[in-house]
Amino acid sequence: MNIMSTLTIKNLHVTLEAKPILNGINLILPQGKTHVIMGPNGSGKSTLGNTILRHPSCKIARGTIAFGKNKLSSMKTDEIARAGVLLALQHPQAVSGVSVTNLLTIAIRKFSVKRKDFKMAHFRNDIKETAKALHIQDEFLSRSLNDGFSGGEKKKMEILQLSLLPAKCVIIDEIDSGLDIDALKLVAKQITKLRARGVSIIIITHYNRILRWIKADRVHILHKGKIIKSGTQALAKDIEKNGYSDYI
Amino acid sequence: MKTQTQAPIGEQTKDGGATAIPDRFLYRAKKGITREVVEEISTIKNEPAWMRELRLKSFEEFMRLPVPTWGPDLSGLHFDEITYYQRTEEGRYKSWDDVPADIKNTFEKIGVPQAERAFLAGVIGQYESEGFYQKLRPKWEDKGVIFCDTDTAVQKYPELVKEYFMTKCVKTSEHKLAALHGAVWSGGSFLYVPNGVHVDMPLQTYFRMNARASGQFEHTLIIVDEGASVQYIEGCTAPMYNTSSLHAAVVEIFVKKGARCRYTTIQNWSKDVYNLNTKRSIVEEDGIQEWVGGSMGSKTTMLYPCSILQGRGARAEHLNIAVAGPGQHKDTGAKVIHLAPQTSSTVISKSISFGGGISTYRGQLKIVKGAKGATSHVQCDALMPDNISVSNTVPYITVDEEDVTIGHEAKIGRISEEQVFYLMSRGLTEEEAINLVVQGFMEPVIKTLPLEYAVELNRLIQLEMEGSLG
């Protein structure tokens, strides 16, 4: 975490199934800052998150994405993840026969090759501790990941994974949907911990709700694939009160 | 009588972990099957008259019975081009140190001695047609457990073998391959567990078929007496050759009252082998038969382990995974016959087809009138990572009793782009992501295997699928 990496998105144009979704996004997220991307349905929020991780259906037509020295726009998803840029998916996939513990212990080896002090036993313990903090029951750590999980359980699993892998920048896509207020508080607490660790954060959301517990440095409003307004947390509050109509 | 035939040196191959090594034969029967060949086998083995008669009767049935046509295409199988018997080593070895170096190397490559040292109670290795190395930890010998190759059992335990060998479980007259087996069988394991003895470590054997166009007809006979329990593990691998080879094994298991048997087999035949087996268990009152199978390699496999639930409360669990790659046809499944009340069965069959491979689940469930309270659940899951492979499900269900509970589920899954993206977004490469999905799919089978078999099966499947995806 000692290297400062800024996420820089320049004039990003993205198509999804040949339809233009993002139409010239510019965004600079300095290391350790928390930005919120808000916007109505279909504004391109999730596409932005997926494009940063190079989802195969999001085609970059123009523009670049960089994270420090890493040019994400010409890297593969796994390389981006290993560079420390992680995504909490809006719709995490179920993986039959693979538990979150299996996945994490496989994934961490991809990150920890050079770390001499790494101990798998400690890592397993960290999984348990973090799960406890998120009020995830033990059985969910050994069950097939996301298989038959409720919406809330899936979201907690995403935050669990992001908390345990050595992230430098995380994109959190609609973590607040499907979470009740208590679960949301626990998730927000984990995100605050990431922030305290110096992790850069992009929160993609519909609602202001989660911002009650998380301090955002910047709020951006996305509409028709463009950032049409940026401001402080007050902007999010205003949207909650008055909706998007004043801005779009 | 005995002649030494030095066959050509086998090529080294890179075929899924199966490595060819030089052939070494003390005796090899001439190609094709005749009455003389059958008699010769019996003579060489110095068999008692009853076994010789069984062979000859089987040979007549073989000549009379037709090649089965209800399953995969067997037209590439030419019975006249197969060598039915060959013998590699004069005696058998009780200690690993006595085993010749080239054979030892092969076994070391496939991990037998390590396996044995680690936790296996006994080992019978089958190199070509006869078990050449056997050992049973004295602990079990003292309790009366018998574990030896079936040829030895014919000589040493004739009463047991005569009573159970192809008399009441698999009969020689059943079909052409059972009849062929009866005529030319050689090797295999004989396992007897006396009343109330629980063998708490798995007993294992590792089969290997090495010579070109050789047949392998091992006969495994397992008798688990009342209240006893055992786990038997069999692994098979064969190197790559061009001429089609035939493997036609028979496994007969008797699970007596309150007894339990788990039969686990991992097969990795070379891709030219016709793997046509008959495996059956007769389960008495409150007995439990578990079948765990991993079917890798081979050109064509037909394998439907069968449980005959004869006594009240008898139970069968079938767990199978079949992998069909390019040019391969896996026709596998399970047969369960409920003959008594309160019998229960579970079948979980998993298949992976890729690169144009064909896998078919062929299952039979039969519940007779009077088998009140019988329950059966069949689950077939197929995984197909591409669009050129084939997966079929062919269940035959006959239920003549009303008071039963049965369920049948069949699912076909693909490895989706979203799933791969999800796993890659956690830092796994595309290949690792796909492997993990495949491993997860197999997990219900893998978790029942001892660790090193689990590792081996995972590795074999990865090797098979390497380069075929993406």
Give an account of the 3D structure.
The complex is a heterodimer of chains A (248) and B (470). Chain A is of the alpha/beta class and 248 residues long. Chain A has a domain at 7-93 and 167-242: Rossmann fold (3-Layer(aba) Sandwich), CATH 3.40.50.300. In chain A, 34% of the residues lie in helices and 25% in strands. Chain A has a six-stranded mixed sheet with strand order 5-6-7-3-8-9, with helices on both faces. In chain A, helix 4 crosses helix 6 and helix 6 (151-164) runs parallel beside helix 7 (181-196). The model of chain A has no long low-confidence stretch (mean pLDDT 93). By secondary structure, chain B is an alpha/beta fold. Chain B folds into two domains: 28-422, no CATH class; 423-470, no CATH class. In chain B, the strands form three sheets. In chain B, strands 5, 6, 8, 9, 11, 12, 14, 15, 17, 18, 20, 22 and 24 form a 13-stranded mixed sheet that branches. Chain B has a ten-stranded mixed sheet with strand order 4-3-7-10-13-16-19-21-23-25. In chain B, strand 3 (122-127) and strand 4 form a beta hairpin. The termini of chain B are far apart. The model of chain B is unreliable at 1-22 and 116-121 (pLDDT under 50). Classes of the chains: A alpha/beta (248), B alpha/beta (470). Chains A and B meet through helix 2 and helix 3 of A and helix 9 and helix 10 of B.
* Beta-strand fraction estimate of chain B: 35-45%
Order of helices and strands of chain A: EEEHEHEHHHHEHEEEH
Number of beta strands of chain B: 25
For this structure, the CATH topology of the domain at 7-93 and 167-242 in chain A is Rossmann fold
Largest protein-protein interface: A-B, 30 and 25 residues
**Low-confidence residue ranges of chain B:** 1-22, 116-121
Number of helices of chain A: 8
User: Globular, elongated, flat, extended or rod-shaped: what is the shape of chain A?
Assistant: globular
